[in-house]
Amino acid sequence: MKLAKIFAITLSIYVLIVIVFESLLGYYQPGAQQSLVITTTNEDGTVNSRVVSPVEDDGQLYVSANHWPRDWYNNVLDRPNLTGSLRNSETIDYVAIPVTGEEDTYLQKKYKHGWVFRFLTGFPPRYFVRLDPRL
Questions:
Q1: Which residues constitute the domain of residue 43?
Q2: Which of the two residues, 88 and 97, has the higher pLDDT score?
Q3: Are strands 92-98 and 127-133 parallel, antiparallel or unpaired?
Q4: I need a surface site. Which of 50, 84, 102, 108 has the fewest CB within 10 A?
């Protein structure tokens, strides 16, 4: 019984650490130099903006859902048209393409998060989307 209580307390403290860390990221990330503001639409037509960290690889622009709060990711899976703007630049229309297969394996390896970051974020799965300019 005592072991179960210690485990429950330890797990509760860990969950609290993850919540605090994710909240602080949400507060401080908008000030990051290299950030992209994407605007998505949810199922009821509500427009939402979110700051994400872009990755440019071989001329392609990617963003990843690598935190538990990932409403923007679910929105682009259902409605892939979105807009995005890098800090102090023009807004561009994009189509979000979920990354799979070899492309995903390559990105997961090249842009792997360290163990400490994954621990502090609660080991969420990471999903990349490629942002192709809409013509």
A1: 2-133
A2: 97
A3: antiparallel
A4: 102
Which residue from 96, 107, 95, 42 is spatially nearest to 71, judged by alpha carbons?
A: 42
**In the 8-state DSSP scheme, what is residue 78?**
H
3-state secondary structure of 57: strand
Exposure string of 90-106, with b = 16+ CB inside 10 Å and e = fewer, is eeeebebbebeeeebee
Tell me the range of 4-8, 10-14, 32-36, 107-111 where mean pLDDT is highest.
107-111
Per the listing, tokens 């950030």 go with 35
Q: Quick check: 124 pLDDT over 70? A: yes
Number of domains in the chain: 1
Average pLDDT over residues 43-63: 90
Q: For residue 100, what is the domain's CATH number?
A: 2.30.110.10
Q: Tokens 């970051």 — which residue?
A: 117
Beta strands in 53-115 (DSSP E): 55-57, 60-65, 81-86, 92-98
